[in-house]
Write a structure and sequence with these properties.
Blueprint (H helix, E strand, L loop, with lengths): L4 H6 L17 E8 L21 H14 L5 E3 L2 E4 L9 H5 L2 H8 L7 E6 L7 H12 L2 H5 L2 E7 L2 H6 L1 H15 L5 E8 L4 H16 L3 E4 L10 H17 L3 H7 L14 E7 L2 E4 L28 H18 L12 H6 L2 H6 L12 H4 L3 H5 L5
Parallel strand pairs: 1-2, 1-3, 1-8, 3-4, 4-5, 5-6, 6-7
Antiparallel strand pairs: 8-9
């Protein structure tokens, strides 16, 4: 079955829940990205994610320990989890994941409203729709199927084919029907990477998807979930910024149609940490248009809690986040960040840290501040909190 979360936003004009006044946030939320899926049956255009070498049983053990620690707390809670990095239904170890007792137990310790899994799916790969139906049936009967309250699925789209290829459109219709016919509570959004030709058809595609499927298209810079230090990744991000400038030439159209969470002060910034669990270790994930998976020592959370049975894992996470935020603000004077009114927001999203590490000490901003400023009046209210 499909729920109405995106329909309420797209068709009825409701604001996203993330557009929330910072002063009203009463809980600290930790979102966990579990990087545990192994292999993929698809070759989506513009995808850079790591396909092999992701699975490690220690990752679920770490997540379970964190869930156990927070299960009776209401000041710090686990938000919905993301399982990646590859296509969920095309992963080679899907059967093991959905029947993992420890993972199911950990999810059941989360607040009931937050027992949601964000995951990706693709269409027209080596898997038939019958294959997908069979996998969803397996999930329905699995330990995870009984523990998870909602399944937030992001369908990866090739917009060129969506707008020009009837076979592709038929496959998308079939996939939506497959989700609709399941007993699982599915929430569908769609996403596309930045590839050649997307910019020219993006707004017509958004209009089409909103009208036909009553949901959004999230437009992703392609590289953020798999950052490394290559020039290719950096250049791709700056291509994205240039595209944003052109798309925002009509501010009203952009603000009402383009799904742009970077314009939301409360999203993945204050009272919030994103933690990527990879090979059993925890890494803070910066937010730059989407969660960035960077598994280097700069972002690694101290694992000293493993040898201190009474230690709070969440304290290690918050201490690491607070230390990064403070150091970024303190050391921003020689960068463009030092005179920017968004510094406090970006520091909480760890953007200056990316500039110092991934971009090797870049002084100029890596974000499109002119586009972010379009949201000043309704979101930032002229300051950076």
């Amino acid at each position: 079955m499909l729920n109405d979360e995106w329909k309420n936003i797209v068709a009825k004009g409701h604001k996203l829940e993330e557009f929330t006044a910072v002063s009203s946030m009463s809980q600290y939320k930790i979102q966990v990205n579990l990087e545990i899926l192994e292999g993929c049956s698809y070759m989506c255009p513009g995808c850079f994610v790591k396909r092999k070498g992701n699975w490690n049983p220690n990752s679920i053990a770490t997540f379970h320990s964190l869930a156990l620690e927070l299960k009776d707390r209401d000041d710090i809670v686990l938000d919905d989890i993301v399982i990646g990095p590859t296509d969920f239904y095309g992963a080679q170890n899907l059967e093991d994941i959905i029947n993992n007792q420890r993972l199911a137990d950990a999810i059941l310790m989360m607040p009931e409203d937050n027992r949601n899994i964000q995951h990706n799916c693709s269409i027209l790969g080596s898997l038939s729709e019958k294959d997908i139906e069979g996998k969803i049936k397996s999930i329905e009967n699995s330990l995870l199927g009984k523990a998870v309250e909602a399944w937030d699925v992001q369908i990866a789209l090739d917009l060129n084919r969506l707008m020009n290829d009837q076979e592709y459109l038929n496959a998308l219709d079939e996939r939506v029907e497959t989700f609709k016919n399941s007993s699982l509570n599915f929430e569908i959004s769609m996403a596309t990477n930045i590839v050649q030709g997307v910019e020219d058809i993006l707004f017509p595609a958004i209009e089409f998807v909103r009208a036909k499927y009553e949901t959004v298209i999230e437009v992703l810079p392609s590289v953020v979930r798999s950052f490394n230090h290559s020039a290719k990744h950096g250049n791709k991000l700056f291509e994205w910024n240039d595209m944003l400038t052109r798309l925002a030439a009509d501010p009203h159209r952009f603000k009402n149609k383009f799904h742009f969470l970077q314009g939301d002060v409360s999203h993945k910034a204050f009272h919030y940490s994103v933690v990527s669990i990879y090979h059993g270790d925890m890494y803070l994930s910066p937010f730059i248009y989407e969660n960035a998976q960077i598994h280097t020592d700069d972002f690694k959370v101290d694992n000293g809690w493993l040898w201190l049975p009474d230690a709070d894992i969440s304290e290690y996470i918050l201490n690491k986040k607070n230390a990064i935020v403070k150091s970024q603000i303190k050391e921003s004077t020689d960068k463009e960040c030092g005179s920017c009114k968004y510094l406090n927001i970006c520091a909480n999203r760890m953007v200056p840290m990316i500039m110092d590490t991934v971009f090797n000490g870049r002084k100029e901003c890596i974000l499109n501040k002119d586009v972010i400023s379009l949201f000043d009046n309704e979101v930032y209210h002229g300051n950076s909190y």
